[in-house]
Amino acid sequence: MTKATPENFIALLELQRRDARMTHLEESLKTLQSEPELVTALKRRQAAVAKAKELNTQRAHVEQAAALAEQKVTDLLDRLEKDRARRDAGGSAKEVSALQRQIDSLTTQVEKARAAKAVSGEKLDAFMTERSAILPKLQAADAAAKRLVAATQEKGAAMQAEHGQLAGERDQYVTAVDNAALVSRYQKIRTGGHAVRVAATTRTGATCGSCGSTMSPVELSEVEADPTEVSTCPSCGAIFAS
Ligand SMILES: [Zn+2]
């Protein structure tokens, strides 16, 4: 049998309120990193990073193709110029004729190479246009994720700070209850089960303020028989502190 005064009960409810807040903070801190909004943003960011890498690889390929096409034109023009110089320098009719055939062939090749160079230049332009349209979206996804991570960290730090303060002040609130037997019962109820439970609550007539269940008239009369005697809810086990 535990006896308690109204003042004990008021202080016990305050302890319960603060303990519940601490429990809530502990649970929120555990799930903070797995909040759907954050998880989604991080996934989007990951996809954006992958896409940016892919674009860089593609860019390197397209640029290399354009550079090769340009080099080919330069090389062919170089050979053409040399052959023309040799032809213009003169020689036997057979030599000049052979050189001319080569020059004709090179001229055709230059035309083809120029056409190929134009195509690869267009491809590069198209790619760069597409890339510049995509990049801001990737940057936005990156920035959004960073903002959310920072906000989550800030939120977590604030929760940690509040929890730390509550934990630091708990002893003084236990002392304020000023009833060791009552506190001991409270602790047993609170942490004695599988999960942390509400161990002190208010009562409105026959209705429990914690679990909401209603007592039978017999149960109620037992609870109300002696207001100084500590009674608990028959359903959830919480101490009726009022
Ligand atoms: Zn209850």
From TrEMBL:
Pfam families: CT398_CC, Zn_ribbon_9. It comes from the Bacteria. Residues 207-239 form the C4-type zinc ribbon domain. Residues 15-116 form a coiled coil. Keywords: Coiled coil. Residues 15-191 form the CT398-like coiled coil hairpin domain. The keyword Coiled coil applies. The keyword Coiled coil applies. This is C4-type zinc ribbon domain-containing protein. It comes from Kocuria subflava.
